Every structure is written in C-alpha cells, then in structure tokens.
Amino acid sequence: MSTFSTTVLGTPRIGPNRELKFATEKYWRGEIDAAELQEVRSGLRAESWKRLQEAGIDSIPTNVFSLYDQMLDTTVLVGALPKQYLAASNNPLDQYFAAARGTAEIPPLEMTKWFDTNYHYLVPELTADVEFSLNPTELLADLEAAQQAEVNARPVIVGPFTYLKLSKMAEGEETKNPLDLIDRLVPVYEGVLELLAHEGVEWVQLDEPSAVTTLTAEEQKVLQEVYTKLAGVKNRPQILVATYFGDTGANLAALTSTDIDGISLDLVAGELPDIDTPGLSDKLLVAGVVDGRNVWATAIDGAVELLSRCDERASKVAVSSSCSLLHVPYSLEPENLPTIAERNEDGSDGLCKEWLAFGTEKLAEIALLSKVHNGAIDPNGPEVLAARDVINHRRESSVTNDQAVRTRIAELTEDDYQRVPYEERVTAQEDLDLPLFPTTTIGSFPQTSEIRVARRKFRKGEITADEYKKAMQGEVAHVIKNQEELGIDVLVHGEPERNDMVQYFAEQLVGYWASEHGWVQSYGTRCVRPPVLFGDVSRPEPMSVEWTTYAASLTDKPVKGMLTGPLTMLSWSFVRDDQSLEDTAKQVALAIRDECVDLEAAGIRVIQVDEPALRELLPLRDEDKADYARWAVATFRLTTSGVKPETQIHTHMCYSEFGEMVGVIGELDADVTSVESARSQMEIVEDLEEHGYHQGIGPGIYDIHSPRVPSVEEMSKALRLALGAVPAERLWVNPDCGLKTRRSDECYPSLKNMVEAARELRESVQN
Ligand code: GLN
Ligand code: ZN
Q1: pLDDT of amino acid 1
Q2: Helix (H) or strand (E) holding 211
Q3: Fewer Cβ atoms within 10 A, N terminus or C terminus of the chain?
Q4: CA 137, chain centre distance (Å)
Q5: Which runs of E-coded beta strand occur in 572-629?
Q6: How far is ligand 1, taken at its centre, from the CA of residue 45, in Å?
Q7: How far, in Å, are 607, 613, 616 from residue 685 at the CA level?
Q8: Distance between Cα 633 and ligand 2 center (Å)
Q9: Count of other CB atoms within 10 angstroms of residue 243
Q10: pTM
C-alpha cells in the first residue's frame, strides 16, 4: 500500500465574507485604486494558502485567485484578448475588466455556464488569424508570492483542449471550429511548461473538464496529440491533467496513453476505471473522492474502500476533492445549525451541522481519509467512528424519510401526469375571454428603491412584518394599476416579496434549509447562496396564494399566479446525494402541484410555472440525455396536471437556443410557453413547431436585458415574423424575461409600445 498525499483541485477565491467581491466593486466605482484591490486579493490568497497548509494539504493549487474568471485569465495568458479590449485602456487590469464587463462603447465577452455548474465563464472569442503568445505576468507574480510564502505550489491553468473546446470564433470567420487552432496554441503551453520548470515548479495542473463530455474520435485524437506533445517537452514540471464533473469514459485512453505524470478523476460523478487500464499504473492518480461541488459530509467507509481500489490501479495516489472547491461555500463555522448532540438533548429531529461539509470541512475530510489509508489513524478509532455515525444519523433521520411523502409518491398513477388534450383545454379556457394575441409579462416588475428600502428595514428590524407586508402590497397595487392602464390582458402581481425565485419557495418548504453565509461565486463579483435541499420535501402551507389573490382582488382582468418549477428549484440548490435527482424532483413537483391546486381553488385561472433552468440539468454526456428528458417531462407534468382543464398553465424558459431540449418543450404540455428571444422570433417559433410544438407560444418580442426602449415598429416587425411560423390563435405577446432588473422608466414605456404593437397586429389581422 502506497502512502497517500493530499490535495484539492482548486479553492474559492471570493473571500470568506465576499471581501474580493466588495473590493472589486469598489475598484470599479473608483473608490479604491488597483494597488488596494491587489492587496485585498493577496491577503485572501495568503489566508487560503495557510488554511490549506494547516489542514494538512500537501500539494497546493495556485494561480486560482482570479479577479473575475479563470477562462478570462487563460485568454490573457495566451495573448488572445480581442483587440477592442486592448484598445479600451492602457493598463492591463482595465483591459481585463473591459473584456469581463464591457465599457460604454463595447460589449463584454459572452458569458455562459461552466459545464453543468452554476458558475459562468467568459467565452473566448477567437479570430482565424489569432497569434497566441505567452503573457505570463500574472502567472509569475502569483508563483513568486507562493514561493515566498513557502507554499508547495502547483499552478493551475485551463488546458489547451478545454480552452479551445469552450471558445467560439468571432462572427464571420472562415474557420468555424476553434479546435482547428490547436497547433498554434500548443506551443504557448510548451512555453508555459518551460518557464515554470525554470522557476522551479514541480507540478503543474492543466484542467481538462471537457474530457468528461462526449468527444468525437477526432477530438479524442486531438486531446491525445496535445498531451503527447506537452509531455514531450524536455524541460518541464510534472503534468497533472485534471478532469472533473463526470466520467472520462471512452476519453480516458486519450490521456493515459500519453506520458503525462498524473491524472485526476472525479470519483463522485464518475467511475473508477478498470484495473488493467493501460498507462494508468505508472501515473499519479488524484482520486476525487470528496465531492467538490456539493455540501454533504463524505461517507467515510465508501471513500476508504474506493481509495483502496485506487491503490490497486496506480502506484501513487493522492486524496482529493472531485473538482475545485470554488463551487462550495467557505466554511460551515459561521452557520447557526444545531449539532447532533444538541438535537439529541432537546429531542428534535432535523438537519444537523455535522451532516454538512463546506470548503474547510472538506479539507479536514481529505486529511482524515489519507491518514486512515496510510495507517496513521486507526480505522476503528474515534475519528472514523464519529464520521460513520454522522452518515448513519442522516440516513435514519425522520426528515430524510418522511413516510407521508413517500407513500404519496408510491401511490402516484399515470393519471397524475396527464391533463386532457390541449384542444379540449383550449375550449375549456374560452371563458377567460382573451383577445387574439394576448399580452402578458413574465412575472417580476422593477425592484424599485422603495422595495429595496423596505426589505432592508425589515431585515434590520426597523419595521415589523406587518409593515413590510403592507409596503409590498402597496407595490402590488401599484403594479396592477399600471398594467390595467397599459391595457395588458393577463396581469401579474410583480413578485416584490421575492428576494430570489428559488430561495423564496425554499424558505417555505419543509426539507429545505437556507444558509446565512453560504455564498458561492456565480460569475465575476456575483455570488449566490443556493439553499440546501436536505430532506423529504413537503409544503406545510400555501406559499403564494395570499399575494396572488390580493392582486386579483384589485382587478377584473385575470391575474397569473407565479411559481418556480421543480427542475429550476433543484438546479439552483444544493441537492441531497442519497437518492436520485429524479426522486427528489418528484417531491418538489408534488409541493408545487399542491400550490397550483390551491391557487386554482382560490379562483386563479392562469398559473405560470417557471422553468428557466430546464436545460441546465441536462447531463454532459450524450448517452445520459434521453433519460433526463424523460424524467424532466414527467416532473413538469406532475407539477401541472393537478388542475382542471379550465386552468391555463404557462411556463417560461430563459433561452432560445434549445439545442437538445427543443423536442421536450412541447411534451411539457403547458398551454402557453414564453421564451427568451436571443435569436429572431421567427426562428424560435419555427424551431419549436418543427419539433411538434402545438400549444400557445410567446416568443419574447423584446430584450429585457437592455435598458433600450424598443419602438412599436420594431416589435410589430418581430410579431409579424413570428406570425409567419405559428397560427394567430396560438401567438402571445410578451417581453423575453422578468422585468425586475429594469428601471420603471425603461419598463413602462417598453410595455406601452408592446401593447400597441399587439393592438395594431390584431387590427390588421381582423380587417
Ligand atoms: N417569473 C420570474 C421573473 O419574472 C422569471 C425569472 C426568470 O426567468 N429567470 O422574474
Ligand atoms: Zn427568463
């Protein structure tokens, strides 16, 4: 048995109290200078290194304290920052932020999701004539600091294969596939290796998460050639290729067949490779046995067993997190949660602190696992027993085994997943008396300063719950009145009471816990606090009925009830790892279904179940996608099939590049679907209709992400285009997303023009 070392693939960087976020925003506002910003970053970095060293982590990932995004850092490192950003300023820091955020004159780089996480990266935009060149200033500065702090540094860089896989070619370029540029990029990485060797670096980590996605044979060949070349560099550090977020499957051989020195495998999301995998035995296997992107305490017995099997496969093994800890909060320490002992004492049952492991706790787990494996700790000693007890305690708790919830799920029948056919529902809904091309919005209205002030006062205890509610009701009344004046057909209450569309419901559901300090970076300086779904989910009381019926009492027009769908609830939460996502989704679906039924009983005739994240849960590998589509459809239908045919169900999706999901959207069988309009309305509608969509459709006719007020003509044109692809009686008129990020003086003029465009179209069609 070999002796194990310890590591993690990366660390959070935003600061335990979001210090880097606040400093960066101050810098942007001109309140601090670049030196002060760098000082905050250096301080956090030094603390992080210390935290890792003290926890007993041997090899420390460095070069991870990005000021915005690691993909953007790599773009700078390889000299691929587009010209317009270089021209935006004389100083590299402001060029960097220009690419990240844009300036008054130029838009930023596109941002998109980092694999299936809720982190977003900046998409490199390349031209065919790009000349990559090594720009190592940041890399070397970080390394120098690490060496001064006597850190056993392992610089982390996004690998060349993943870098190009995630890039796009600039508009109008002949070369369509960025991977075609690989031969020009690899020499820069060769230069990086030589440089790091010269600086005395022993190990470098090249991140290749693209190796867990489905690759063509050709792409596998590229991957293999890249690492054959890099491993062939004479003077270089040892190379660790880091894969994560899934199983490398058939791509593994492309890496193990080369002379790289180590490979990391995500053993939480992926499988351990066969014992006779060629090329594995002489490499360092970095075993990702501690989940780097979820918040549960590691099941110690399973992990120890897994490690002993790693030992049979490779001569050297390091215990590690499955991916960078960027995706989990810093530490559980400041959270106010009862411990198991406290619960035992007061006889309560529920989530216990020990069930969870955030960043700091994961470091301790990694250290413990390596000690157990190395025989430095007795496998039946008190530390191991305690870790085992936690897992048993969680498994046996009544909150993870709510019999009422489980029985209800076991008794579901096919009927619970079905409404009567769409055509029959259309007839049943005729008395809603909607005009042709009905107008509506997606739910939220501007978060005015009044709303924000009231929320802050309420949080600080300066106003009572009742006063807060009154203030929000005032806002609802205001929004209803405005919509009536505009002549909108299906109104909304405006969602002023919701801080966040997931957290708002999570806070009211049994089985969910909202942390106080559990921030994780979503992109740049934006952080989110995903709620933790820890137990069987149920809905003790109606969650939105009072707000919706209050709004409805103020108008004769139909008011649409607004709910967050189960898939989005899961996608933007930390979910339990002790049952399948599909099973968890069913529980949330039933809770939201109950809310639909209660809204209906309270007289609400139109209900929207938002699923902006429907596509986000799509698995990374092709072979897993069909199964997700199956249960995603079932989950949505379970949520919405409890209501009568007379009740109109809407859904909303925040993207229009449906890709693999396009066929699924019709199967959800909502009466009306509204979608974001990044492309032309015509294309969206055509795309859907071609894939069998046959229900109502509201292609967003203007972009709410821009402050611009679109003209009537512009929106008329968009509507006419859409009408080319869908029969008039199925076309709805709405903006492309919620309006909460807009100011009132942007929102209302736009809606006014939108209503006018719908009216004109109605007239022209009816004449
Ligand atoms: N109903 C939500 C809103 O209008 C939908 C938000 C979203 O699509 N992300 O804010
Ligand atoms: Zn949206």
Answers
A1: 57
A2: none
A3: C
A4: 31
A5: 606-610
A6: 36
A7: 22, 20, 21
A8: 19
A9: 28
A10: 0.96
Q: Is residue 521 a contact partner of residue 326, using CB atoms and an 8 Å limit?
A: yes
Fold matches, 19-396 and 424-766: yes
Fill in the amino acid letter for 487: G
Size (the chain), residues: 767
Q: Kind and range of the H or E element at 605? A: none
Closest residue (by CA) to atom 6 of ligand 1?
A: 738
Domain range list for the chain: 19-396, 424-766
CA angle, corner 307, sides to 303 and 313, nearest 5?
145
Least Cα distance to 75 among 37, 132, 10, 24 occurs for 132
Bridge-based pairing of strands 532-538 and 510-513 is antiparallel
Nearest alpha-carbon partner for 530 in 244, 117, 122, 209? 117
Q: What is the pLDDT of residue 678?
A: 67
The ligand whose atoms approach the alpha carbon of 656 most closely is 2
**Which residues sit opposite 266 in a β-bridge?**
288
Q: Which residues pair with 533 in a beta bridge?
A: 512
Q: Which atom belonging to ligand 1 lies closest to the Cα atom of 612?
A: 8
Compute the distance from residue 735 Cα to the ligand 2 centre, in Å: 9
Which ligand 1 atom is at minimum distance from the Cα of 441? 4
Which residues of the chain are modeled with pLDDT < 70? 1-2, 678
pLDDT at 677: 78
CA–CA dist 685, 427 (Å, integer): 23
> Which atom number of ligand 1 is nearest to the Cα of residue 443?
4
Closest C-alpha to ligand 1, atom 5: 738
3-state secondary structure at position 687: helix
CA 95, chain centre distance (Å): 27
- Contacting residues for 202 by C-beta, under 8 A, at least 6 apart: 152, 154, 237, 238
Q: List residues bridging with 563 in a β-sheet.
A: 609
Burial of 510 (0-12, 13-18, 19+ CB in 10 A): middle
- Judge whether 324 and 9 are in contact, CB under 8 Å: yes
Cα of 740 to ligand 1 centre, how many Å? 8
* Assigned fold of 424-766: TIM Barrel (3.20.20)
> In testing the pocket of ligand 1, which one of 444, 608, 677 has its CB within 8 Å of the most ligand atoms?
444
Structure tokens at 425: 């529902």
Residues 279, 487: Cα–Cα separation, whole Å: 69
Contact 340, 306 (CB under 8 A): no
pLDDT value of position 405: 98
Distance, CA 652 to ligand 2 centroid (Å)? 6
Question: Which atom of ligand 1 lies nearest, measured to the CA of 676?
Answer: 8
Q: Is residue 724 within a helix (H) or strand (E), and if so which, with residue range?
A: none
Q: Which ligand approaches the C-alpha of residue 741 most closely?
A: 1
User: Within a 10 A sphere around the Cβ of 509, how many other Cβ atoms?
Assistant: 21
Q: What phi, psi does 356 have (nearest 5°)?
A: -100, 155
Q: How are beta strands 120-122 and 111-113 bridged, if at all?
A: antiparallel
Q: Side chain identity at 678, as an amino acid letter? A: A
Q: Could you tell me which CATH number the domain at 19-396 has?
A: 3.20.20.210
- pLDDT at residue number 660: 84
* Residue to substitute in 113, 441, 495, 547 for testing ligand 1 pocket (most ligand atoms within 8 angstroms of CB): 495
**Selection from 662, 668, 669 nearest residue 685 by Cα:** 662
Give pLDDT, residue 706: 86
Ligand 1 pocket, Cβ-based, cut-off 6 angstroms:
442-444, 495, 501, 562, 610, 612, 652, 654, 737-738, 740
Q: How do residues 218-245 score in pLDDT, each as one tens digit?
A: 999 999 999 999 999 999 999 999 999 9
Listing DSSP states for 15-36 in one string gives -TTSHHHHHHHHHHTTSS-HHH
Query: What was the pLDDT predicted at 683?
Result: 87
The gap from C-alpha 132 to its chain's centroid, in whole angstroms, comes to 30
pLDDT of residue 682: 83
